[in-house]
């Protein structure tokens, strides 16, 4: 089992903050996350898991040590996408005190 990295902690904190915003139905995993999960189910001898520990959230760094966070979620019907995306961004930045967040990109992938 691999050690939890700082990137993993940032991703998990951002995911929890985004999930806690009213109007967010669920975080939407990307294709890589879905494939990783399918392979893990079918592999009898698992290698230590690496990669994203928070499906629906991608985290990267720039050369100045700042975080770039990409969040994909499905919106609950009856909520305005603009209001919810602003609330998600504010919640993610607030959940990472002391971390240099450079950008938070939010994509609404659907409505349920």
CATH architecture: 2-Layer Sandwich
Q: Can you count the helices? A: 3
How many structural domains can be distinguished in the coordinates?
A: 1
Strand elements, count: 4
Cα radius of gyration in angstroms:
15 Å
Q: What name does CATH use for the topology?
A: Alpha-Beta Plaits
Provide the CATH top-level class.
Alpha Beta
Q: Outline the low-pLDDT stretches.
A: none
Estimate the strand proportion.
Answer: 25-35%
Global shape: flat
Overall pLDDT score: 85
Query: What does the largest sheet look like?
Result: 4 strands, mixed
Our measurement of the CA-to-CA distance between the termini, rounded to an integer number of angstroms, reads 36 Å
Q: What's this model, at a glance?
A:
With 112 residues, the protein is α+β, with helices and mostly antiparallel strands. Helix content is 37%, strand content 26%.
